[in-house]
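Sharing in case it's useful to others searching the archive later.

Someone asked me privately for the predicted structure of MFS transporter, so I'm posting the question and my answer publicly. Question first, with the sequence:
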Amino acid sequence: MSSETELNIFQRFARLHTLTSGWYLWLSGLARLPISMINIGTLTLVSSVTGSFIFGGIATAAAGLGNAIGGPIVGSIADRTGQRRVMNVTVILNLVALLGMLLAAFNYPEYSAWWMIAAAGLAGLSTPQVAPLGRARWMAVAELQNPGKPVHQRRDLDTALSFESTLDELGFALGPAFVGLVAGIFNPALAIVFAALFVLFFASAFANHPIAGVVHKYQQSALAEQRKKLQEKRADEAVTPDRWWTQIIFPVAGMVGQGTFFGATGVAVLAYTKTQGLGDSGGLLYGAMGLVSGFTALSVASWPVNFTNRARWLVSAVALSILTWILSFQAISPLWVVVLLLLLLGLPVGPTMVTTFSTVSEYTPPTRLATAMTVTQAGIVLGISVGNAVGGLLVQADGARGGFLLAAIAGTLIVVAATANFLQKRIYHHGQIRR
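And my answer, the predicted structure tokens:
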């Protein structure tokens, strides 16, 4: 059989099954659906019960803010105590929050809006951090399965992170579609019920998968080795706890830009379809961009190893920024022009996300995997909230052009972050000092 570096792209993704187990890959996808289901489900339920999109927007913002705050906290605890324990706690709290939202909706009508907003905030705070903790697992698995083989580690990690980003894209497309279908045919409350069931069965199964224990042992071993080096005063080989995080500042800033891009583009597309007499079909156009993005995210696994993450991120970010600025100038063009530009825009979106996470993985010591991934994920969540809120105001004032303009500005922010990351002196790489 050919060496691992000679595997084609299909063999690389098939290898992910051997690194974990076949059902883990499916579980990872299903377990992250509740995140998007809770956001859109909250908006739909609260708006329906109160008759006000303002309250619906406030509740959704509360869920997003809670997620941005809770994610890094969960990640930090997971690095110290292991993923299994903290995720089981978040599953329980999340179920309580979702149940509280349903009870408030039907039993306390005079206080329902504020009780539901409070429950939405708790739901966001306790959202099981499947995507970032899943990426942290792959970072550990790639190194454990390829000891002393950095090229093989890089290939496996590229493949895994490409797969993870594609799952994210599919999750944010399928989750809202499922909620819309259930809410439209049956009742908005049933969408929240289904989100709770997904949390109960799939998020809890993800939390207790054996890989969680493997990663925790790996981190404990790395921590013991780090303490040993510190005791031996070999400072040239030890990770300085108060310095590693400075390396991920630019990637996290880039993710805030990426989230703002997503939020603003989504609002702008919805505004555009309404002006074209297509009603609320903007989700279909946005989903088409996401589908293209998902496929190109998968392609990153086959990119040359000597094409560094820093260079990959910068090239992808520049392409994203250029296409978004073109789209902002074509915001009132015929439908076929906007659709074509959205499809082209999907090409660099997936690789930009994959390479940003890959860049973070390079700078993160083994003892801080979950913390780094959840902080990075929080950047996306925060950016989406900004994009939705500010983009909504701009769309109100200037139509789709205002939303696309904000998306273009966000694209420029990503380029600035990628450029700064490309130029910065890299000190730490997988916990080792680089000269």
